């Protein structure tokens, strides 16, 4: 039951926001009593922490499954971005990550510490792949570009309240990041994906 509560809470938090969803909402959605939830989680903050751990695991499993498909580096970046858009589709008035940062800052800081480490490794592997396949320049300072990109992405998600605006800015950040690194071959590949970012 504990795992089912975490899974349902994670789904609801992402769709409707961490602040917006209450323990009553989760209990009602699952057709269980609120008392059952409190048997496993003494407060909402603890449930949010467990939910963010599950989301982190799902995100990185999805990233790894995309990496295993052996796309070129630029296509891989767009596939990952599209998977994020699909996973984190929200109907909340404000972005779930923005809500998490604003209303649960301690949990947000823990999430960011973990995500920065994981995402840095992911971005580094992508850049090295791009250099190998000729889509990115060989003279890149890889560590700097990794840092630039995660600072850009995390600031968008943490500081932009509108979910729609966040997704648009993420796409523009991906273009900005890729153009800064791309060879002529990489620019051609990038333009192809920008014409249809969902391919």
TrEMBL record:
HTH tetR-type domain sequence ranges: 1-59
Alphabetically ordered keywords of this record: DNA-binding
Lineage top rank: taxon: Bacteria
UniProt keyword annotation of Glycoprotein present: no
DNA-binding region extent: 22-41
Protein name: TetR/AcrR family transcriptional regulator
Higher taxonomy: Bacteria, Pseudomonadati, Bacteroidota, Flavobacteriia, Flavobacteriales
């Amino acid at each position: 039951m504990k795992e089912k509560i975490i899974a349902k809470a994670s789904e609801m938090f992402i769709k409707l926001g961490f602040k917006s969803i209450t323990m009553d909402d989760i209990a009602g959605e699952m057709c269980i009593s609120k008392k059952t939830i409190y048997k496993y989680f003494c407060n909402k903050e603890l449930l949010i922490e467990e939910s963010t751990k599950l989301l982190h695991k799902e995100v990185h499993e999805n990233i790894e499954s995309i990496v295993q498909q052996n796309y070129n580096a630029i296509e891989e970046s767009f596939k990952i971005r599209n998977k994020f858009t699909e996973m984190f589709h929200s109907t909340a008035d404000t972005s779930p990550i923005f809500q998490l940062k604003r209303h649960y800052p301690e949990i947000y800081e823990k999430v960011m510490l973990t995500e920065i480490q994981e995402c840095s490794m992911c971005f580094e592997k992508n850049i090295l792949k791009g250099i190998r396949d000729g889509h990115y320049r060989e003279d890149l300072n890889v560590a700097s570009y990794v840092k630039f990109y995660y600072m850009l992405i995390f600031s968008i998600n943490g500081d932009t309240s509108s979910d729609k605006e966040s997704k648009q800015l993420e796409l523009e950040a991906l273009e900005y990041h890729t153009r800064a690194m791309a060879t002529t071959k990489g620019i051609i590949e990038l333009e192809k994906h920008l014409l249809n970012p969902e391919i």
